[in-house]
Amino acid sequence: MKIATRHLAGSAIALAALALAVAAALGKWPPTQPLVPLAALWLALLGWGFHAALRRHLQFHDQLAFAQSQLELERRARALAEQTLEQTHTALCRKILQQDQLRDSERNRIARDIHDDLGQHLMALKIELSLMQGSSQGVHPPIHRKIGALIDQLGLTIQSLRRIINDLRPLELEHGLRAAMERHLSEFSRVNGIRHQLDADPEALMGITDHAIDAMLFRILQESLANVARHAEATEVKIALTRRGDLLTLDVRDNGIGMAGHPATHGCGLAGIADRVSAVGGKFVIDSKPGAGTALTLSIPLLRPTAVQSG
């Protein structure tokens, strides 16, 4: 482009020089040729006009190049801002997940310690007092009555302790995971107007004594349904809970509009699910196409790898 502009500028200068040369030679032309001065003037004006047009062209080209450079700078700045925002979003989601996991883990630990330690000691003490009450019956009536009062107070203490344990554990899971899923799905359908189908294998949860698994699956179900309500525009959602050997699988499918773009752009829910499943050595798969709904499938090993347990 620079070479072409230089060439055009040289042509304009040459035309102007030619016009001047013709004008200088006017005195040598015979009077029978009056058009020569006009031709010289025309050539001079043509050179000047060409030069002016060339200047305007160069100015426009410079302005266009400046505008393009500004657009490129803005594009890079926007891309950097979007990347920073996505990284911040991911970090925030992980932080929220870590806080939830720490809170749930600590609450479960406290509940387990209370039940296994303090609860067992109180029950043993109640049994001892009951034996003492039986042996004092008819022998020491005042002591017998006093022991009876102590047993009653101890019974109230044990009941309060059980309420504390239930409060520390998720209230929804008080009657088991399946019952909690059914209640939550019914409320979900009532509030959002989205039909639901639950297919939970009765044998899927048999023999599972780790309450953390129940709590994690229930929280994942909550997050999955919240994502359906916010983004899917679905009319129906299907949930399946199955087990094959030591692998527990939860499948959540909707008939909504599907997802376009990276799943991380749909809030902390999906990122949180992926991190929860990964933390226990499981797998999380998203199958979604625009207009074809979304399927979330997660598989959790009930026998966790040693590396995961120690972590």
Polypeptide structure, described:
It is found in: Cytoplasm. Its cofactor is [4Fe-4S] cluster. One of its GO terms (molecular function) is 4 iron, 4 sulfur cluster binding. The protein is α+β, with helices and mostly antiparallel strands and 311 residues long. The chain has three domains: 2-76; 95-171; 173-310, 2-Layer Sandwich (Heat Shock Protein 90), CATH 3.30.565.10. Helices cover 67% and strands 12% of the residues. It has seven helices and five strands; from the N terminus they run H-H-H-H-E-H-E-E-H-E-E-H. It has a five-stranded mixed beta sheet, with helices on one face. Strand 2 and strand 3 form a beta hairpin. Helix 2 packs antiparallel against helix 3 and helix 2 (35-136) crosses helix 6. The longest helix has 102 residues, at 35-136. The radius of gyration is 42 Å and the shape is elongated. Mean pLDDT is 77; it is low at 305-311.
How does the overall form come out from the CA principal axes? elongated
Note the total helix count.
Answer: 7
* Major pleated sheet: 5 strands, mixed
What is the succession of H and E elements? HHHHEHEEHEEH
Fraction of residues in H or I helices: 55-70%
According to DSSP, the number of beta strands is 5
> What is the fold named in CATH at topology level of the largest domain?
Heat Shock Protein 90
Compact summary:
The protein has helices at residues 2-24, 35-136, 141-168, 177-192, 211-232, 268-279, 306-310; strands spanning 195-200, 236-244, 247-254, 283-288, 294-301. It is an alpha+beta fold and 311 residues long.
